[in-house]
């Protein structure tokens, strides 16, 4: 079956404040009933939010990884990502400017271009060129480093090339692409396994360490093709795309007869470790990358995988407006729960053109948001209560992302009102003098001292214009 024409161009995860800015200020005034004065008011709020978070990071944290807004300090957290037990943390690692570099579709440096702030964009390029190196003895999660650092460098490079006429003469000499290539080279040893599935962890300086764990997630080995594919197209070095594509094809070959995949597996044997699966943590970006790879690269092989996987999700995971988890072998339900990462699915469905299904589920998520003021990390659908330990809200942007997609697809002003609610919640509950703080417990709204890099940006490399792929 051939793919339908996408209902939207290939955007992808947008920064929370940027996507709301685009939705609240874009489009013809009066077309959707959302007036000029209201748009301008929200635009100013969003601009203030962005610079409040960005300026505090640059003042108190750069070139370290992330801002601690309550104490106006920093944390070097790259080795902590995907590492809940905080094992094997480096001793002499002083940060990789993670918040400045990190991107989903657009990141902080890129948003400066969106906002027309080329002076600060130039500063960002120079800061990264002068401060960033990957020759460090640090154990990192390949998936997290790929989506946050490699994708960010590639995005910033493409925009620097596109807007070179707006920059000082001779300022940009492909420095960010060279950094991306250096990082990509450090990823390649992770793929040297019997299956081609990459190790989840690698040391940036020394490669795969002795006795490294062979367990990885479906997202960890199936969500690398966008960044590594674009890196190959930009550098002319096919190794990056070839490694990511081999891993993706191997992963797809391990699906069940129901076209479902589990959550974790072994990179050496290819055997599944966790058979229960869904559209949330550990699996989410696998689906996202398939459709975006099809949009970006135009190859039917990505569409064929995505279409089969999407139909299986709709058949075995969907229950009315909700999506539960199920055993990949039988399709039998295993866990009935909302997880905040599931919120991306509505944006994916909108890209696909399945707007009615996206809208139905999005409204249920919004009801949960309104109940708590933000979206809890995990909510038990079968009991109608918060998960006893995962009550936090780490400033995730997936719900805002899907709101943006649905507005762009429908132009229904109701989604702009949802956007206003999101902006209001973030300012009321999470804004502090030193930035925006994560919520430790949504039942008490107690904060924790962490402004995650994904507050300003999220997963998924931007689909560059076709001219970049030549």
UniProtKB/TrEMBL annotation:
<dbReference type="Pfam" id="PF01532">
    <property type="entry name" value="Glyco_hydro_47"/>
</dbReference>
<feature type="active site" description="Proton donor">
    <location>
        <position position="144"/>
    </location>
</feature>
<dbReference type="GO" id="GO:0004571">
    <property type="term" value="F:mannosyl-oligosaccharide 1,2-alpha-mannosidase activity"/>
</dbReference>
<dbReference type="InterPro" id="IPR044674">
    <property type="entry name" value="EDEM1/2/3"/>
</dbReference>
<comment type="similarity">
    <text>Belongs to the glycosyl hydrolase 47 family.</text>
</comment>
<dbReference type="InterPro" id="IPR012341">
    <property type="entry name" value="6hp_glycosidase-like_sf"/>
</dbReference>
<feature type="active site" description="Proton donor">
    <location>
        <position position="377"/>
    </location>
</feature>
<feature type="active site">
    <location>
        <position position="398"/>
    </location>
</feature>
<keyword id="KW-0325">Glycoprotein</keyword>
<dbReference type="GO" id="GO:0044322">
    <property type="term" value="C:endoplasmic reticulum quality control compartment"/>
</dbReference>
<dbReference type="InterPro" id="IPR036026">
    <property type="entry name" value="Seven-hairpin_glycosidases"/>
</dbReference>
<keyword id="KW-0378">Hydrolase</keyword>
<dbReference type="GO" id="GO:0005509">
    <property type="term" value="F:calcium ion binding"/>
</dbReference>
<keyword id="KW-0732">Signal</keyword>
<dbReference type="GO" id="GO:1904380">
    <property type="term" value="P:endoplasmic reticulum mannose trimming"/>
</dbReference>
<keyword id="KW-0326">Glycosidase</keyword>
<feature type="signal peptide">
    <location>
        <begin position="1"/>
        <end position="30"/>
    </location>
</feature>
<dbReference type="GO" id="GO:0005975">
    <property type="term" value="P:carbohydrate metabolic process"/>
</dbReference>
<dbReference type="InterPro" id="IPR001382">
    <property type="entry name" value="Glyco_hydro_47"/>
</dbReference>
<feature type="active site">
    <location>
        <position position="284"/>
    </location>
</feature>
<dbReference type="GO" id="GO:0016020">
    <property type="term" value="C:membrane"/>
</dbReference>
<keyword id="KW-0256">Endoplasmic reticulum</keyword>
<protein>
    <recommendedName>
        <fullName>alpha-1,2-Mannosidase</fullName>
        <ecNumber>3.2.1.-</ecNumber>
    </recommendedName>
</protein>
């Amino acid at each position: 079956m051939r793919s339908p024409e996408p209902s939207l161009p290939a955007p992808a995860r947008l920064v929370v404040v940027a996507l709301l800015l685009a939705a609240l200020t874009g489009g013809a005034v009066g077309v959707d009933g959302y007036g000029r004065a209201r748009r301008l008011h929200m635009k100013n709020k969003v601009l203030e939010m962005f610079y409040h978070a960005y300026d505090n990071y640059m003042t108190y944290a750069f070139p370290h990884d992330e801002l601690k807004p309550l104490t106006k300090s920093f944390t070097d957290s790259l080795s902590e990502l995907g590492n809940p037990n905080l094992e094997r943390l480096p001793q002499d690692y002083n940060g990789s400017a993670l918040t400045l570099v990190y991107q989903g579709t657009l990141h902080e440096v890129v948003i400066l271009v969106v906002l027309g702030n080329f002076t600060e964009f130039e500063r960002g390029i120079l800061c990264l060129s002068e401060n960033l190196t990957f020759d460090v003895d640090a154990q990192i999660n390949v998936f997290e480093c790929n989506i946050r650092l490699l994708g960010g460098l590639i995005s910033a490079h493409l925009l620097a090339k596109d807007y070179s006429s707006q920059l000082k003469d001779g300022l940009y000499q492909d420095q960010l692409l060279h950094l991306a290539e250096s990082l990509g080279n450090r990823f390649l040893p992770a793929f040297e396994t019997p299956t081609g599935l990459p190790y989840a962890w690698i040391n940036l300086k020394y490669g795969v360490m002795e006795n490294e764990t062979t367990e990885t997630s479906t997202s960890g080995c199936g969500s690398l093709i966008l960044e590594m594919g674009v890196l190959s197209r930009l550098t002319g070095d096919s190794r990056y795309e070839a490694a990511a594509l081999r891993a993706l094809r191997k992963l797809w070959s391990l699906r069940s007869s129901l076209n479902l995949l589990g959550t974790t597996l072994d990179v050496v044997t290819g055997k599944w470790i966790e058979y229960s699966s869904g559209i949330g943590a550990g699996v989410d970006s696998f689906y996202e990358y398939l459709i975006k790879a099809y949009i970006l690269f135009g190859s039917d092989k990505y569409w064929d995988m995505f279409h089969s996987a999407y139909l299986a999700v709709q058949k075995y995971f969907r229950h009315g407006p909700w999506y539960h988890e199920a055993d990949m072998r039988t399709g039998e339900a295993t866990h009935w729960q909302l997880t905040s990462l599931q919120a991306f699915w509505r944006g994916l469905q909108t890209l696909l053109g399945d707007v009615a299904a996206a809208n139905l589920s999005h409204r249920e998520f919004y009801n949960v948001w309104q109940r708590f003021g933000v979206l809890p990390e995990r909510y038990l659908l079968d009991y109608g209560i918060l998960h006893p330990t995962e009550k936090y809200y780490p400033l995730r942007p997936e719900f805002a992302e899907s709101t943006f997609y649905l507005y762009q697809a429908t132009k229904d002003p109701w989604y702009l009102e949802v956007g206003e609610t999101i902006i209001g919640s973030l300012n009321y509950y999470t804004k502090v003098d030193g930035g925006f703080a994560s919520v430790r417990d949504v039942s008490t709204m107690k904060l924790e001292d962490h402004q995650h890099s994904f507050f300003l940006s999220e997963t998924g490399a931007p689909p560059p214009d076709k001219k970049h792929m030549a």
